[in-house]
């Protein structure tokens, strides 16, 4: 894991700690979700709300090598 990813996860964990909750990274198809990669994809497309409105979440999930049915269930 690169230093950038570790720093990102550390900052994300600290944010959730300040919110009074522990960071829980989702597991998809038995693998931890790449929250850093997801963050980069969403920020490159502009905004999470716009991306979800365009149904890009399905494309992201398919890119994680999940089945089509599970990808549709996620988004």
UniProtKB/TrEMBL annotation:
State the superkingdom: Eukaryota
Q: Which gene encodes it?
A: LOC101731330
Q: Origin organism of this chain?
A: Xenopus tropicalis
Report the protein name in the record. Lysine-specific demethylase 5A-like
The ARID domain covers: 2-75
Q: Which GO terms describe its molecular function?
A: DNA binding
**Pfam families in alphabetical order:** ARID
Family matches, as InterPro entries: ARID_dom, ARID_dom_sf
């Amino acid at each position: 894991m690169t230093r950038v990813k570790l720093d990102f996860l550390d900052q994300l964990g600290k944010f959730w700690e300040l919110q009074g909750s522990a960071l829980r990274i989702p597991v998809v198809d038995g693998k931890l979700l790449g929250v850093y990669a997801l963050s980069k994809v969403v920020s490159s497309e502009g905004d999470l709300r716009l991306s979800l409105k365009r149904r890009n979440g399905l494309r992201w999930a398919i890119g994680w090598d999940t089945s089509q049915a599970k990808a549709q269930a996620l988004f």
